[in-house]
Amino acid sequence: MKKAAIFDLDGTVSNTIEALAYCGNKTLAEFSLSPIEQEHYKVLVGDGAYTLIERAVKEHDIDDKEFIEKVYHRYREIFAVDCLYNACPYEGIPELLDALKGKGLKTAVFSNKPHEEAIRTIDGIGLSGKFDKILGLKEGFNKKPAPDGALLIAKEFGVEPSECLYLGDTNTDMKTGKSAGMFTIGVLWGFRDRKELEENHADAIISHPSEALNYL
Questions:
Q1: Are strands 14-15 and 183-187 parallel, antiparallel or unpaired?
Q2: C-alpha angle with apex 194: 12 to 115, nearest 5 degrees?
Q3: Is 130 helix (H, G, I), strand (E, B) or coil?
Q4: Element holding 75 (H helix, E strand)
Q5: N or C, where is the chain less crowded by C-beta within 10 Å?
Q6: What is the C-alpha separation between 3 and 164, in angstroms, rounded?
Q7: Rounded distance, CA 120 to CA 47, Å?
């Protein structure tokens, strides 16, 4: 029996691709770099803000660490203002969270998004009351796919990792959940495809949030 459910944020709980692309391209423009198609951001995101910017800059054949650092710091300033640009929860997520709570499960978000922006995103899309814990990336904290955050959440909830569902849409999420010893559920409504989830050994793959209830 599962006692907790841990969710990735971008591409799993919240559709934030417009916000990520908007902030990314606004930042690139300030450095005279051409915009990147919104759809392509789906393969750039997932491993933290710095990696997103590093990948975006390298798309322009630039591999200058000092320059990437400057672009990253400006991106963080822009993202702090516009991280909610057209963001919304995916269809069925609020209902799934209510159902999980109704069955007595603890719920959490674990994201590589900077911690403050993770909290702002959950608040901004109206889900702040539906999670028992929100954990984003903090200074000195190992980002996903390191399992540290997932294990910390399980410990705080007083449950074993094997009693946790771990839901996400990328290879990073599947690696995180597997490393933590949790039951991984790959979601198909996010930023990546079934092939990526299968190749990273998702225990289950679902097309709609309600299907997660089959794995309690």
A1: unpaired
A2: 25
A3: helix
A4: helix 65-82
A5: N
A6: 6
A7: 19
Q: Give the separation between CA 204 and CA 71, rounded to whole angstroms.
A: 38
- Return the number of other C-beta atoms located less than 10 Å from residue 138's C-beta: 13
Give Cα 24 to chain centroid, integer Å: 16
65: closest CA among 78, 74, 53? 53
pLDDT tens per residue across span 42-99:
989 878 889 999 999 999 999 999 999 999 999 999 998 998 999 999 999 999 999 9
Percent of the chain with pLDDT over 90: 89
Non-local (6+) Cβ contacts of 89 within 8 A are 13, 14, 15, 125, 126, 127
Task: Name the pTM for this structure.
Answer: 0.89
What's the confidence (pLDDT) of residue 1? Answer: 92
Cα angle, residue 204 at apex, residues 119 and 186 outer, rounded to 5°: 35
Q: What is the pLDDT of residue 105?
A: 98
